[in-house]
Backbone:
């Protein structure tokens, strides 16, 4: 079975541009989370979605938004890119929402470089 | 707010040596889960283990073992007889029962290099 897939794998943008990152969860998984990992640091939580509704949001500006589609795939959008947005963006999926013991399975990420 | 600290930024060992990666966490919640993930150069975080706050039994899986001590808020990870393929960044993470989201709070990671 396919794991979490993310596209594109790499992306180069310039300051002020907009970017859309995509994630397909593991088949049967209904919850998707997004994390930002700056070089040399641990991943930081951005959003969590379940059944197309936002269930959690980390400490990120409104330039960051996301949505989940009926097939449980998800998009992360970032507007007005800043140099500091350069990072590896990780998507994770889990079977359901609400169980603290849920295991989140991660994709390989999208590496975004903002010039 | 919760916090996870991995004080060891980088560790280098020679193949077949044992190595322990430290993890200390902070939370006021009494119910939580702790995780370890491995991140190879490919970038994907690979799940290794999950442990709940009520279960302080140590766990062994092959060459991997985990020591959870609630009294010291630590969840340390030991690799026995390390191999070159163990080279990666290892993250400890915490998630809480409380709150509407089930986000993971990660430490800053430990870069493990196993030399042949």
Residues:
């Amino acid at each position: 079975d396919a794991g979490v897939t993310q596209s594109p794998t790499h992306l180069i943008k310039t300051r002020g541009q907009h970017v859309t990152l995509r994630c397909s969860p593991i088949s049967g998984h209904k919850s998707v989370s997004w994390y930002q990992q700056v070089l040399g640091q641990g991943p930081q939580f951005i959003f969590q979605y379940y059944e197309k509704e936002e269930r959690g949001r980390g400490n990120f500006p409104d330039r960051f938004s996301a949505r989940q589609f009926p097939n449980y795939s998800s998009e992360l959008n970032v507007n007005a890119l800043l140099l500091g947005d350069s990072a590896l963006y990780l998507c994770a999926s889990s079977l359901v929402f609400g169980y603290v013991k849920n295991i989140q399975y991660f994709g390989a990420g999208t590496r975004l470089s903002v010039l | 707010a919760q916090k996870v600290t991995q004080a060891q930024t980088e560790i280098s060992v020679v193949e077949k040596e044992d190595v322990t990666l430290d993890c200390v966490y902070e939370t006021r919640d009494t119910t939580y889960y702790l995780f370890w993930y491995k991140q190879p150069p490919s970038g994907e975080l690979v799940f290794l283990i999950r442990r709940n706050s009520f279960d302080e039994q140590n766990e062994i899986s092959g060459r991997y073992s985990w020591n959870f001590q609630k009294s010291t808020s630590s969840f340390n990870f030991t690799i026995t007889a390390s191999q070159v393929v163990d080279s990666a960044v290892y993250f400890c993470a915490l998630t809480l029962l409380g709150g509407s989201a089930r986000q993971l709070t990660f430490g800053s990671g430990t870069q493990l290099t196993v030399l042949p």
